[in-house]
Structures are given as C-alpha cells and as structure tokens.
Amino acid sequence: MQRQTKRLSAATIRALGEILTGGDFYGGEAVWVFAWPLVLTGPGPAPAVGAQSPVRVLPNFDVVALDGLAPAEALLLDAFATRSADHVWTLSTASLLKALHASRGLEDLRRFLTGSSPGEELPQTVTALPADAASRTEKVRDLGTCHLLECVDEAQAVMIEKDRRAGALCSRIGPRHLMWWLPTIFRSSAPRC
Questions:
Q1: Chain centroid to CA 28: how far?
Q2: Which of 7, 40, 89, 155 could be a cystine partner for 77, CB 3.0 to 4.6 Å?
Q3: DSSP-derived pairing of the beta strands 88-90 and 82-85
Q4: Whole-structure pTM over 0.70, yes or no?
Q5: Where are the alpha helices (DSSP H) in the chain?
C-alpha cells in the first residue's frame, strides 16, 4: 500500500491477482483483487442492495422504502425524485430532467429500482417516465447565450443582418428585432445597435 495515497500499489494488485484468479468469493459475492485488502481489514462487504432494503415502485410514480434505505441509496433517490414522506419518493418528469441537467444517468436509477425490488417488474408508467425524460432532452439543445436586440428602426436591423461579420452572429426575428448569439470570443468586439 502506498503511504501517500493510501491506495494499493500495482505490485500488491499483481500479487493478489496471482492468488485470486478471476476474482474470488466472500459470502457468496464476487470480490475482485483490489477489494480483498478492504475485506480483510474492514467490516466486510455490505449486503446486496436488494437484500438490504426492499423497495416498492408503485404505478403512481411513488418509490416506497419499506424498511428505510442506506444513506447512499437515499442520496441516489434524492437525486432523481422528490421526497414526499419519510420513506417515500415521487418520480416526476421535472425531477428526472433536473437529474439529467446535473449529469446523472437515468441508467443508474433504472438499475437501482430493478435491483431493489427483486421479483417484481417495474410498472409500465415508471418505465415510460425515464424514456420520456430522455427523449425530451434530445429534442432541445442549448446552443449558448443569446440576447434579444431591438433596433431603432427596421433599416438598422436590416443593415446589421446583412453585415458580413455581424450577420453571422444574429437572426432577424421581427421588423426591428434581432436574436444575437454571443460566443465568448466575440463578446468584446460585438457591434452595437
């Protein structure tokens, strides 16, 4: 183990890899080479998510933790759903879009829900909601900052639109109005109406 980083060195991982071919098993769970020192020095691996905290997923988009959740599981649900009671989270399009905006993958949520409710299929309404949220994010793209400009008259708007440099950065959206794109490299040299 390296003292500065408190991580296993490559030599330690190689030595363990020679002993444990393709991973080993501890309590019925596969344990890979890099995890064995943690198993030997720590309290042991945590039980599987589904075994520790059964979760019911209801057709009305509620996720109910019957016996509570581990802190990591509660944080995961907090990222994708709104807590509506002590042991209840509610999924919505808005909560999923918020998670997507924060760069969370919807696959993490699906994996958690299917793994936490063993033997139960997810309701159709709940499987359709993430697909709908994902398709909404693909239909609209953020192209950057823009400003709405109002010119004193239509001739001024036409002149800016026809300008070789300025015309590439704007679009006419009315007789006297322009939508002006302001990439960061042009902000200091952008012409004014």
A1: 31
A2: 89
A3: antiparallel
A4: no
A5: 10-19, 36-41, 49-52, 71-80, 93-101, 106-116, 124-139, 154-162
Mapped onto helix, strand or coil, the DSSP state of residue 38 is helix
CA distance 104 to 50: 21
pLDDT (tens digit, 0 to 9) for every residue of the chain, 193 residues total? 455 665 666 676 666 666 655 555 444 455 555 565 665 555 544 544 444 457 889 999 999 988 778 888 888 899 999 999 888 999 999 999 888 888 888 888 888 888 887 777 888 988 899 888 888 877 776 666 788 889 999 999 999 999 988 888 888 999 999 998 766 444 444 444 4
8 A C-beta contact, residue 177 and residue 150: yes
112 φ, ψ to 5°? Answer: -65, -45
CA dihedral 20, 22, 25, 29 (to 10 degrees): 150
Beta pairing class for 177-181 and 170-172:
antiparallel
> Alpha carbon of 4 to those of 9, 34, 35, 39, 106: distances in Å?
11, 17, 19, 21, 36
